[in-house]
UniProtKB/TrEMBL annotation:
<feature type="binding site">
    <location>
        <position position="260"/>
    </location>
    <ligand>
        <name>NAD(+)</name>
    </ligand>
</feature>
<protein>
    <recommendedName>
        <fullName>UDP-glucose 6-dehydrogenase</fullName>
        <ecNumber>1.1.1.22</ecNumber>
    </recommendedName>
</protein>
<dbReference type="InterPro" id="IPR036220">
    <property type="entry name" value="UDP-Glc/GDP-Man_DH_C_sf"/>
</dbReference>
<dbReference type="Pfam" id="PF03721">
    <property type="entry name" value="UDPG_MGDP_dh_N"/>
</dbReference>
<comment type="similarity">
    <text>Belongs to the UDP-glucose/GDP-mannose dehydrogenase family.</text>
</comment>
<dbReference type="GO" id="GO:0051287">
    <property type="term" value="F:NAD binding"/>
</dbReference>
<feature type="active site" description="Nucleophile">
    <location>
        <position position="257"/>
    </location>
</feature>
<dbReference type="InterPro" id="IPR014027">
    <property type="entry name" value="UDP-Glc/GDP-Man_DH_C"/>
</dbReference>
<feature type="binding site">
    <location>
        <position position="201"/>
    </location>
    <ligand>
        <name>substrate</name>
    </ligand>
</feature>
<keyword id="KW-0560">Oxidoreductase</keyword>
<dbReference type="GO" id="GO:0003979">
    <property type="term" value="F:UDP-glucose 6-dehydrogenase activity"/>
</dbReference>
<dbReference type="InterPro" id="IPR028357">
    <property type="entry name" value="UDPglc_DH_bac"/>
</dbReference>
<dbReference type="InterPro" id="IPR014026">
    <property type="entry name" value="UDP-Glc/GDP-Man_DH_dimer"/>
</dbReference>
<dbReference type="Pfam" id="PF03720">
    <property type="entry name" value="UDPG_MGDP_dh_C"/>
</dbReference>
<feature type="binding site">
    <location>
        <position position="254"/>
    </location>
    <ligand>
        <name>substrate</name>
    </ligand>
</feature>
<dbReference type="GO" id="GO:0000271">
    <property type="term" value="P:polysaccharide biosynthetic process"/>
</dbReference>
<feature type="binding site">
    <location>
        <position position="84"/>
    </location>
    <ligand>
        <name>NAD(+)</name>
    </ligand>
</feature>
Amino acid sequence: MKITITGTGYVGIVTGVCLAEIGHTVTCYDIDKTRIKKLQDRIMPIFEPGLEEMVINNSERLSFISDYKEAYRDSEVVFICVGTPEKKDGSANLKYVYDAVQQVVECVKSDCTIVIKSTVPVGTGDNLDRVINQKNDTKRFEIVNNPEFLSQGTAINDTMNASRIVLGVNSAKAERILRNVYDGFRQKYVVTDRRSAEMIKYASNDFLALKISYINEIANLCDFIGANVEDVALGMGYDPRIGNRFLKAGIGYGGSCFPKDTKALHWLANFNDCELKTIKAAIDVNENQKIKLIKKARKYYDSFRGLTVAILGLTFKPGTDDLREAPSLQNIPILLEDGARVKVFDPIGMDNFKKIYPSEIEYCNCIEETLEDADICFILTEWPEIVTMDVSKFPFYMRNPIVLDGRNCFSLEAVEGKNFIYESIGRRV
Ligand code: UGA
């Protein structure tokens, strides 16, 4: 089967390489020529553990091209994996999806199955089907919704061993084709109509976001009443109806998915006169949570003017160089506006951060250099380098050892009685 992947972001490259791994011949197309050139030279445009090796190992079956006519000409199945960024009103911008589908329809020689992997509002698949198939009587297009559930940092394993493959189809033929594509994975299928498949994606991501905001609110209350949120989460998580994952309290969720998908579903509900109050609450809690450490810091300093602030971690989570919606992007501007000297360290994310802040902040080579002379330290990402560091470095290097840990990196035993002030989320020393 001749498969083309459109879009070489996280979802596109990982889907492409995993389909090549199970034996398909896959062409990955992107409008961005520089990105394609890099991939042709086996330089990964994103940081994703294991990706480079897998691309190299599957070189024979995997190609990267930036000519869409060539990419689509003989395709039997095209996976659309382009972005659906947030518009100003919170709704999803479908421009890239529609543009890509339009090009497929124009270029493909015969019947083709178009699989929408991008996260799209409910009704998009039906709409595409109507628009495309009404205009074409020579070629027939099957439109499938096949949402993606991979997480950055564990994307390959999440794809090779997915918890489920959701197929939103409106014909037995489309289901048969997709089952043929995915056969090599031997995973559980959920086969439904397109609207339900589109909804499964939003409902899943928004539920996880809700779970995080819920535990963050519980953590904020624990801070006041002296309970320990980690023990609370542990005690809750043993109940299989609750489950122990996504109950890690912190300074909120970031990334390219949860913030965008909660707002998009909320917008869609409002548009249909049906308010999603729980999702609205999750969004509001998260906005506040991202600046929780700034609020905690105000206890020690009225202003950050003239202070040296050490920031450990910039990316929205460990294992990625992605900064989208990361708490660092909320916290650092506040510190700079207030007149602080900001020193940062992140094992992978600094090059991307330099594109946003080329000169206003100091980029350090290691944790020790970042802490040197600092008046306060914010921990924003739980990188292994940070979680495993020797905490006695805080009082040793800092001018004023106040550590605000937004990701609960250290056990309370590890920091208790050490010569520094330590605050975390939902736990008291
Ligand atoms: C998320 C979903 O987990 C994937 O299933 C989904 O496919 C993907 O979005 C998507 O729609 O493409 P991802 O954004 O890569 O994946 O990252 P997660 O690991 O889910 O983390 C998201 C954010 O939640 C991070 O900022 C993380 O720090 C935060 N988080 C996660 C918590 O604060 N607490 C937790 O317990 C778990």
